[in-house]
């Protein structure tokens, strides 16, 4: 079995077509242990197939620089798969002895506290941050060096948020001060990820657009995890984070909300909705309520350009991006994509009017 310096929490098709592909294509090529933290037995086939010797396929389909892209790539970076539900001892060994980097993408609600987080020993019912705390405590107890931790959840300042939550758990566990200092000395990295991954390939693999980004915020002592054209080191994530979260992701969530209001087919896909009444409503709210908000924040021109690219990506004729997939975790997405946008704009214009976006948030709260 290969030594795996990358330990990844999450088995989603997004990760399959994003970081896992970058680690296979980039320099140096990096070996990964993929960890299923949910314990979902229905995904056992996916977990088993991820580490196949000949890898798994990612189909890249779309338009880039005016040219049609339609090609298949193989991902061979995943060397081992484990589950927190059944393989805790081996996972603890890998984190303690092999890991240099920990990645995660555990959904928009993955950092939320759970009642089991207060338990003194690892428990499958714990949240991801609590499980991470126990794994890091085990590495510290074994004399391991601090790690670099890359959360990829779509949460502003995700590295800072995860660090804060892990330290809260440490305080609740009355952790030894030396362990707390060790946790603080790990590099908790803020990053932003972007790629539309539209559908799975069974039992493992995915179809994705050509566009891809992993933007990583610089900090002292940080090195890029891999050199790849889609991986960028930036001084400040906020501008690109706001554009993605409040245009592309907000657009997806508004589209899902409008779709749920009507009688659209359950298998409706984004490009078809964009071409119809739902798409007209999305474009209208972007023009009337989103772009003026960005203008108040001094990002009007950049937002207009980003919206044009976003709508082109939504209309990709090759991707069957199901709106039902986007609608998952809808309440959390409304809060973090639309509610947060309104709060951001109203910091500079308290009376900013956005009746459609306000109504979407209010309907969820009702």
TrEMBL record:
Gene Ontology MF: a single term: oxidoreductase activity
**InterPro entries referenced in this protein's UniProt entry, alphabetically:** 6-PGluconate_DH-like_C_sf, 6PGD_dom2, Mannitol_DH_C, Mannitol_DH_N, NAD(P)-bd_dom_sf
Q: Which UniProt keywords apply?
A: NAD, Oxidoreductase
Span of domain Mannitol dehydrogenase C-terminal: 236-338
Q: Where is the Mannitol dehydrogenase N-terminal domain?
A: 6-219
Which Pfam families is this protein grouped with?
Answer: Mannitol_dh, Mannitol_dh_C
The record lists the membrane-crossing segments as: none
Q: Could you name the domain of life of the organism this protein comes from?
A: Bacteria
| Gene3D superfamilies noted in UniProt | N-(1-d-carboxylethyl)-l-norvaline Dehydrogenase, domain 2, NAD(P)-binding Rossmann-like Domain
**Name of the protein in its database record:** Tagaturonate reductase
